[in-house]
Structure prediction request, 150 residues.
Amino acid sequence: MKNRSSFTLIELLVVISVISIIIGVVIPRFKGMQDEANKAKAKAELKTLQTAVESFFINQTPQEYPASTGTICLTYLNSASPVIVSTPLYDPFASAGDEYIYEIAPSGSYYVIFSVGPNQSRDIGGVGDDGYLTGNQDDDIYVTNGLGWT
Prediction:
C-alpha cells in the first residue's frame, strides 16, 4: 500500500479553474460596489454644495447666486466671506482634479450642480429660465433649485 501525499495534474487544474471562476465573479461585483460608493459620495457632496450655494445667496447684497459657470468652489465658495466651503469638492467620476459642474440659468434664478456620473460623460447641458434642465437625462447625478427634467 502506497501513501500518496501529492496532487495529480488534473487535481491542480480543477483547483486553478475553480479559483479563476471565483475571481471572474468577484471582480465585476467589486466594480459595481465601487460605483455605488461613488454615487453615494457624489449625492452627499452635491447636497453640501447646494447648501453652500444657498448660503452664498443669503449672504449677498443684492441676493444672487454665483454668476459664472464651471468650478464653483474655487471661484466663489472658497473666497466668500464668511468662507462657506474651505476646500474644493471633487467629482469622483470625473478626471482627477475636476470639481462638480455648476451651471446657472441666463436669468440667474435657477442653478444646477452635477456630477458626470458613472459613464464619465456630461449629459446635462444646463438649466433654462423656466427651471427645467437641458441636455440628455442619463446617469448624471445632480441637485437643482429648479424643476428638474420636463
